[in-house]
Specification:
Number of domains: 1
Strand content: under 5%
Number of helices: 2
Shape: elongated
Radius of gyration: 15 Å
Length: 56
């Protein structure tokens, strides 16, 4: 399914944002967790994924 462009386009069409996350978007979460701004973050799971997956 994902070996050709049409497979990816089909998958993207079901995503609310219409695209996959860029590496920088994922890296921003890592930077936040490693920074002093996350000093009061404890005992939580930071989910970074397509909002459509929340309904699964």
């Amino acid at each position: 399914m994902f070996n050709d462009e049409s497979g990816w386009q089909e998958r993207y069409s079901t995503m609310p944002f219409g695209r996959a996350a860029a590496p920088e978007e994922l890296a921003n979460a890592v930077v936040f967790l490693a920074s002093p701004r996350s000093s009061y973050t404890s005992g939580t799971i930071l989910t970074i994924d397509d909002p459509a997956r929340a309904s699964l």
